[in-house]
Specification:
The complex is a heterodimer of chains A (about 100) and B (about 475). Chain A has a domain of about 40 residues. Chain A is about 30% helix and about 5% strand. Chain A has a two-stranded antiparallel ribbon with strand order 1-2. In chain A, strand 1 and strand 2 form a beta hairpin. The two termini of chain A are about 40 Å apart. Chain B has about 475 residues and is α/β, with parallel strands linked by helices. Chain B has one domain: Amidase signature (AS) enzymes (Alpha-Beta Complex), CATH 3.90.1300. Helix content of chain B is about 40%, strand content about 15%. Chain B has 16 helices and 11 strands. Classes of the chains: A mainly alpha (about 100), B alpha/beta (about 475). At the A-B interface, helix 1 and helix 2 of A face helix 9, helix 10, helix 11 and helix 12 of B.
Chain lengths: ~100, ~475
C-alpha cells in the first residue's frame, strides 16, 4: 500500500521533523521504495509464530527500590542550550 | 619490526613487561601517526593526546611498581558513540556536536580500569546509521588502502577500522547493530568481533536500535580482539539486557585444536551479486580450516533473504523511539521556534542528517496506528524464524563460515550506492542476521582482491560460544597469513 503526500506529512509531524513542500514528492517516492522492499515479508507464513522481542533469555533483574543516583542537577544542566534558576528553559506553553 | 606502531597489543604488553619499550614512547608514536595521517583519513573527530600522555606516565609507573593491569598503557581509539566523561561525544551528528557527557560509558570505564588510555574519539556514520561512514556530520573516513580513488572505510565504525589499519591506535572500540564492526573491519583489512548480545553493557553507548546494538573491539589481529574484549565484556547492573553469564578468558581459546570441528557453509549466502573473488576466497577459507582438521558441512538458513527487510523494519522502529529524546531542550543542538512544537521540529530538522531522518520517518510509520501489525509485528515474527534457522543449523555444525561483505570497498560518493538507499543496505546481507539472532561473529582479513583491496571472512558462533569463534578464527588467520599495511 503506497503512501501519499498527506501520510508523509502526518508521519513527519509525528516524528517532529519538517519535510519541505518541494521535498515532499522525493520523500514520498523514497518512502514507497523502502516500503515496497520490506513488503517481501508478507510472503512469509508466520501463523503461530510468536514475535521475537528480545534475544536475551535471562529474566530481567529486579533491584531494590533505592536511590542510586541524583543530586547532580548542575551536571545535568551543564549541557542545556538554555537554563535559568536551575531549570531548563522552553518557549511559553501556557497562555 | 622497527616501527613501534606495527606491534600488536600482545607484543606490546610483552615488551612493556620486559621494559624494552615504554608506554610514553609508544603513545607518542601513535600520536605522531595521528598528526601525520588524520587529515588524510579523517578517522578522529576529537583527539585527547595530552590526556593520553599523562595516562601513559602513570602506566609507566605502574610497570615500575609491578602494579600493571591487563591493558596497562595500551593506546586505544574510542568510537564517538561511547560517552566519555568530560570529552565531547557527538555520535557524529550535528544535534550532539556540543555534547560533553557528565558520565563514562561502562565499556570505556572497564577499559580505563584495566589501564588502557584513550587517544581520542573516532568518526562513524551519524548515530551509527550507515555502511560507508558517509553519513557522518564530520565527513567520510578515507580507507587507508585507497589508491588513486578515495575509498570508503565501511561503516558505521569506519573511523575505528581506519585508525587501526593506519596505525593511529593499537585497537579501537566499535559498535555493531547490523554489521558496523565487521564490515568496516573487512574493508580496512583488520579484525573485529561483535560478541553475543548481552556480553558488553550498553550503558553510556548512544542508542541506535537497542535490541540489536552490541559493542566490540576492532584490532590488528585475533589475539588482540581476545585481549580487548576481555576488558570490555561483563555484567553491568546499569544495563538490564547485559548478561550474567560468566565471561571466560577469551585469550585462553587461542591456538586450541579445531580437529573434528564442524564448519557450516550456508548455501543461501551464494547470493546474486556476490563478487567472484569473494566466492573464491570463501572456498579458500574452507580449505584452510579443513587443512587444520575441521570438517566442512553444507547448511541451510532458509529465511536469509528476509533478514534485510526484517532489519530495516526493526532497526528504524527502535531508532525512531530512541532518537525521540533529541528535542533541543535538555542538551544538544537547539533552533528556537515559536512555541514548543516548533522548537522540537526546527531543532530536529536542522540537527539530524538525511539518512537519520529517513530512518526516523520509516520507523515512525511502521510503529504508527494501523501499520504496526503489518510491518513491525510481522518483522518481529520473521525475526524469530531467522533465529530458529540458526538454532537448527547449529544442530549440524559448530560455527558458520561466510564472507563478511559481498563486495570490496567502493569509492566515496559512489553513484549507485547514493541514488537508492536500498543499494547501500544490501551490503549488509551477510551481517544483519547475526544481530537479529543475537549471535557472536568475527570478521578477519582473508586476502586481497585483484585490485589490491582487503576482503574479509566472517565466523558466526552459537550464543555465548565466542570460544569456538576465537579458536577457529585463530586457525584461519594463521592459514590466511594476511599482511597488514
Amino acid at each position: 500500500m503506497p503512501v501519499d503526500n498527506d501520510t508523509v506529512r502526518r508521519i513527519a509531524f509525528l516524528s517532529r521533523l519538517k519535510v519541505d513542500t518541494d521535498k515532499l514528492e522525493d520523500t514520498k517516492e523514497e518512502f514507497n521504495k523502502i516500503l515496497n522492499w520490506v513488503e517481501e515479508l508478507s510472503e512469509v507464513n508466520t501463523d503461530n509464530v510468536a514475535p521475537l522481542v528480545s534475544v536475551n533469555n535471562e529474566s530481567l533483574a529486579l533491584r531494590d527500590d533505592a536511590i542510586t543516583a541524583g543530586h547532580n542537577a548542575k551536571e545535568i544542566l551543564a549541557n542545556a542550550p538554555a537554563q535559568e534558576f536551575g531549570y531548563f528553559v522552553v518557549p511559553k506553553v501556557v497562555e | 619490526m622497527s616501527n613501534l606502531t606495527d606491534l600488536t597489543i600482545s607484543e606490546t604488553l610483552r615488551k612493556f613487561k620486559a621494559k624494552e619499550i615504554s608506554p610514553v614512547e609508544i603513545t607518542k608514536a601513535y600520536a605522531e601517526n595521528i598528526n601525520a595521517c588524520n587529515k588524510q583519513y579523517n578517522a578522529y573527530v576529537t583527539t585527547t593526546i595530552e590526556q593520553a600522555l599523562e595516562q601513559a606516565k602513570t602506566a609507566e609507573q605502574n610497570y615500575m611498581n609491578g602494579t600493571n593491569r591487563p591493558l596497562e598503557g595500551i593506546a586505544l581509539g574510542i568510537k564517538d558513540l561511547f560517552c566519555t566523561k568530560g570529552v565531547r561525544t557527538t555520535a557524529c551528528s550535528h544535534i550532539l556536536d556540543n555534547f560533553i557527557p557528565p558520565y563514562e560509558s561502562t565499556v570505556t570505564q572497564n577499559l580505563l580500569n584495566d589501564g588502557a588510555l584513550f587517544l581520542g574519539k573516532l568518526n562513524l556514520d551519524e548515530f551509527a546509521m550507515g555502511g560507508s561512514n558517509e553519513t557522518s556530520y564530520f565527513g567520510p573516513v578515507v580507507n587507508p588502502w585507497s589508491k588513486e580513488i578515495k575509498l570508503v572505510a565501511g561503516g558505521s565504525s569506519g573511523g575505528s577500522a581506519a585508525a587501526v589499519a593506519a596505525k593511529m591506535c593499537a585497537a579501537a572500540t566499535g559498535t555493531d547493530t547490523g554489521g558496523s564492526i565487521r564490515e568496516p573491519a573487512a574493508f580496512c583489512g583488520v579484525t573485529g568481533i561483535k560478541p553475543t548480545y548481552g556480553r558488553c553493557s550498553r550503558y553510556g553507548t548512544i542508542a541506535f536500535a537497542s535490541s540489536l546494538d552490541q559493542a566490540g573491539p576492532i584490532c590488528k589481529d585475533v589475539t588482540d580482539c581476545a585481549l580487548v574484549l576481555n576488558s570490555m565484556a561483563g555484567y553491568d547492573e546499569k544495563d538490564s539486557t547485559s548478561s550474567k553469564i560468566a565471561v571466560p578468558d577469551f585469550a585462553s581459546f587461542l591456538g586450541k585444536d579445531i580437529k573434528g570441528l564442524k564448519i557450516g557453509v550456508p548455501m543461501e549466502y551464494r547470493v546474486d551479486g556476490l563478487n567472484p573473488e569473494v566466492a573464491d576466497y570463501w572456498d579458500k577459507a574452507a580449505e584452510i580450516l579443513k587443512a587444520a582438521g575441521a570438517e566442512v558441512v553444507s547448511i541451510s538458513l532458509p529465511h536469509t533473504k528476509y533478514a534485510l527487510p526484517t532489519y530495516y523494519v526493526i532497526a528504524p522502529a527502535e531508532a525512531s523511539s530512541n532518537l525521540a529524546r533529541y528535542d533541543g531542550v535538555r542538551y544538544g543542538h537547539r533552533v528556537e521556534g515559536n512555541g514548543l512544537d516548533e522548537l522540537y521540529i526546527s531543532s530536529r530538522t536542522d540537527g539530524f542528517g538525511r539518512e537519520v531522518k529517513r530512518r526516523i520517518l520509516i520507523g515512525t510509520y511502521v510503529l504508527s496506528a494501523g501499520y504496526y501489525d503489518a510491518y513491525y509485528l510481522k518483522a518481529q515474527k520473521v525475526r524469530r524464524l531467522i533465529k530458529n534457522d540458526f538454532d537448527s543449523a547449529f544442530q549440524k555444525c559448530d560455527v558458520i563460515l561466510t564472507p563478511t561483505s559481498p563486495i570490496e570497498p567502493f569509492a566515496i560518493g559512489d553513484k549507485k550506492m547514493l541514488e537508492n538507499p536500498i543499494n547501500m543496505y544490501l551490503n549488509d546481507v551477510f551481517t544483519v542476521s547475526v544481530n537479529l539472532a543475537g549471535l557472536p561473529a568475527m570478521s578477519l582479513p582473508i586476502g586481497l582482491s585483484k585490485n589490491g583491496l582487503p576482503l574479509g571472512m566472517q565466523l558466526i558462533g552459537k550464543a555465548f560460544d565466542e570460544e569456538t569463534v576465537f579458536k577457529t578464527a585463530y586457525q584461519l588467520e594463521r592459514g590466511a597469513n594476511f599482511v597488514r599495511i
